[in-house]
Design brief:
This protein is α/β, with parallel strands linked by helices. Helix content is 35%, strand content 24%. The protein contains 11 helices and 39 strands. Strands 18, 20, 22, 24, 25, 27, 29, 31, 33, 35, 38 and 39 form a 12-stranded mixed beta sheet that branches. Strands 19-21-23-26-28-30-32-34-36-37 form a 10-stranded mixed beta sheet, with helices on one face. A 4-stranded antiparallel beta sheet has the order 7-10-15-14, with no helix packed on it. Helix 1 crosses helix 4.
């Protein structure tokens, strides 16, 4: 039987440390890892995340071999089953698979990445609670990373944020409690006055000193000498009251501990906090969180070459029915503080706001959110009022005042679309289009003409005339007067029953209808009917985009492979440096022992040489530390870049899947949409006009009037089919 590609057993691949869930069918059998292809014996193992990380990093740094890890994991498994609770680190050290220096590296790398993972979640919670911004988190993470490189210790990101003044301790603790990283604070147990024996005696000024902070929120008490009598906590409290300290005095148990502490200048317990005021809590005014761009019009955008495109003024926002438009972040009332003297600490006023619904919007029951009740453009109006406009009305032209107009709904332009501007929307109504770039998923209705324009249309196009345009459309084209010098490829009917088609290339799957085609003096038209030129053009464009996407994906895979090799080399270099450092540390220990002997024997010259050797060893160890710091920097950059590449790969793979799906739908639609290879001319079609059907073609040798032209089969049923263009 071939080796099983495991997908369900809970076991561990020795090479890549991929974990699988348990399935008794595979336990004890030879399997191969689906991720890396490594063959190994499957057995159940319950391993912690920390131990898994230790094994993974030890292998990556080449501190241990696959065989050593396998042996350690077997010991780990049986230790777990027998209840000994040995860590993988302890087993590796006990078996002498890793040195002390290597174990030190393993631990601080594992600690760093474990804390980083927890702190990433900490940051997400802090941002969601609106305590911090992503920029605040990034700055603290940079400091955390720098400190790790400098002293190989990891500080919680919350502590760094508090130090930076971005976060209060209370906010930090609330997040840590939510993450279950600390327990909620226990309630304070109050004690009575009579709980502590002692003399109710006046405390003298020369026995203690009070130090109150500048913000009047903390008072320290410091012993200046031993108390003459055994005082009670009440004596201290009376002394504080005389000094004006009346609020936030600590409990009697802590005061009694202070009293009982023997006096010593160097004893830190002689100076401790005796009173803590209540800090004021600044409130926050209510504000609105918008889920769409409220000010989409910009001065322009910067193109790739650094030039400003003043035509690109931003995309018009569009929302679907039911979309969340805005959310009110409620006002947080502040709390007046009290200092240790019992005086209030005032706070600034905060303000509230109320969301209001307008056209096509609805408030939630709690009035904290507002939703769209129709598709369209969302708008934020004065007074926190919102509305959704299903159709955009542009009273003038699409030009520099509006910029490019990109909107998923309907657009009604009372003027024209000016030269060089883009319009992309669901449907378009306009007076005139002048050398613009138009992409509409539905119908286009033009009261006047279309001149020098590139159009892609998912529906029908209606216009008075079309001159010098390039058009791709899924529906019909209906023109009142003329089509002149155009390149048209459509899957519908090209119709100008009272107009002319002049000097144009027209491909229409459902046929062509016109009063006249050509003139005596114009360049002859080329007409194609019943063919899939439009669909083929769409497919070709998709294929071109797909080719670019696949090329980009392949580039990312090459970069990913190169970085993975660089990462493996960095791991290997780290392992070699750790081994070198370990040797130097052992050498240092031996030389230090020798120095002790030389000092005892007073061997001056040998001692001098040994001390020089120690300095050289310390220098080498320092150099190794610096090299390892650089390698850790390199590894961090590689990991970050690999994560970015993976994200970009996922995006491109999704885009490729979407494009392939679109291509398949177009091909399926084209198969179901029957062609009509006919041309109807009410007046005259001029000589030298070229006509193509699906299987036959002809160049007219005369002018023809009032004719129907179609492709027909002229051979016998028993013969091979022969087709011709018939004029009747």
């Amino acid at each position: 039987m071939a080796e099983n590609q495991i997908q369900i057993p809970e076991t561990l691949c020795i090479r890549c440390q991929t974990r699988y869930q348990e399935n008794d069918l595979f336990v004890g059998k030879k399997v191969s890892c689906k991720k890396c292809g490594n063959s190994f014996d499957a057995y159940r193992i319950d391993i912690t995340e920390d131990d898994l990380s230790v094994g993974k990093i030890a292998m990556a740094y080449k501190f241990i071999t696959e065989k050593q890890l396998q042996e350690a994991l077997i010991i780990y498994r049986f230790a777990d089953e027998s209840g000994r609770n040995e860590t993988l680190s302890e087993i590796l050290a006990k078996k002498n698979f890793v040195t002390q220096a290597q174990m030190k590296i393993l631990h601080y790398v594992v600690d760093f990445f474990r804390l980083r993972k927890l702190d990433q979640k900490f940051g997400e919670i802090a941002v969601s609670k609106v305590y911090l911004t992503k920029e605040n988190i990034s700055k603290a993470a940079e400091i955390q990373s720098k400190e790790f490189k400098e002293n190989k210790s990891v500080r919680k990101i919350g502590d760094i944020l508090i130090e930076l003044g971005y976060l209060t301790k209370e906010q930090c603790d609330s997040i840590l409690i939510e993450q279950k990283r600390i327990d909620p604070l226990p309630p304070v147990i109050e004690t009575s006055k009579d709980s502590f024996p002692g003399i109710l005696k006046e405390v003298k000024d020369d026995e203690v000193m009070l130090i109150t902070s500048e913000d009047k929120l903390t008072t320290h008490i410091k012993k200046l000498k031993e108390f003459s009598d055994k005082l009670s906590p009440e004596s201290i409290k009376i002394f504080l009251k005389k000094k004006g300290i009346i609020y936030g005095i600590i409990n009697d148990l802590e005061i009694q501990n202070f009293i009982n502490q023997p006096f010593s200048i160097d004893n830190p317990d002689n100076n401790f906090i005796i009173a803590i005021g209540k800090p004021s809590k600044h409130g926050k005014s209510a504000y609105i969180k918008y889920y769409f761009e409220i000010d989409h019009l910009k001065a322009g955008s910067v193109a790739n070459e650094g030039k400003i495109d003043f035509k690109d003024r931003g995309k018009i926002p569009h929302v679907k029915n039911g979309a969340l438009l805005a959310e009110k972040i409620p006002m947080v009332k502040g709390e007046t503080g009290i200092d240790v003297y019992g005086r209030p600490i005032n706070i600034p006023d905060v303000r509230d706001i109320s969301l209001k619904s307008g056209k096509n919007t609805q408030l939630s029951n709690d009035e904290l959110q507002i939703f769209a009740t129709a598709d369209g453009q969302p708008k934020a109006l004065p007074g926190a009022r919102f509305e959704v406009i299903s159709e955009i009305h542009i009273m003038g032209d699409v030009g520099y005042e509006t910029g490019h107009v990109i909107f998923e709904g309907c657009i009604d332009v009372k003027g024209s679309i000016q030269n060089g501007f883009q319009v992309k929307c669901a449907s378009l109504k306009v007076q005139e289009i002048l050398a613009a770039d138009i992409d509409v998923s539905g119908d286009i209705n033009v009261d006047g003409g279309i001149l020098g324009t590139k159009i892609r249309c998912g529906g029908n196009i209606n216009a008075k005339f079309i001159n010098n345009a390039k058009i791709l459309a899924y529906g019909n084209i209906n023109v009142k007067k003329e089509i002149f010098e155009c390149d048209i490829k459509i899957s519908g009917l090209c119709s100008s029953p009272q107009g002319k088609i002049i000097s144009s290339n027209v491909s229409a799957k459902k046929g062509i209808v016109s009063e006249d085609i050509g003139t005596e003096m114009s360049k002859p038209c080329k007409l194609r009917v019943g063919v899939e030129d439009h669909v083929e053009a769409e497919i070709e464009e998709i294929n071109q985009v797909l080719a670019i996407k696949y090329e980009k994906l392949e580039e990312l895979k090459v970069k990913e492979s190169s970085l993975e090799q660089a990462q493996a080399a960095a791991y290997n270099d780290t392992g070699e440096l750790a081994s070198a450092q370990d040797k130097e540390m052992m050498k240092k220990d031996l030389v230090n022992k020798k120095i002790v002997e030389l000092r005892e024997n007073k061997e001056t010259e040998a001692l001098a040489r040994a001390e020089l050797l120690i300095k050289e060893i310390v220098r080498k160890i320092s150099e190794i530390d610096e090299s390892m710091d650089k390698l850790f920097d390199k590894q961090e950059v590689i990991q970050k870049t690999l994560a970015e590449i993976k994200e970009n790969k996922n995006i491109i793979e999704t885009e490729i899947k979407d494009l392939a799906g679109k291509k398949e739908k177009i091909i399926e639609w084209a198969k179901q949409d029957k062609p009509n290879p006919t041309i109807k001319v009410a007046s005259t079609i001029y000589e030298k006009t070229t006509i193509f059907g699906t299987r036959a073609s002809v160049v007219l040798d005369n002018n023809y009037k009032k004719v129907n032209i179609r492709e027909v089969m002229i051979s016998d049923p028993d013969s091979d089919p022969i087709w011709e263009i018939r004029i009747s």
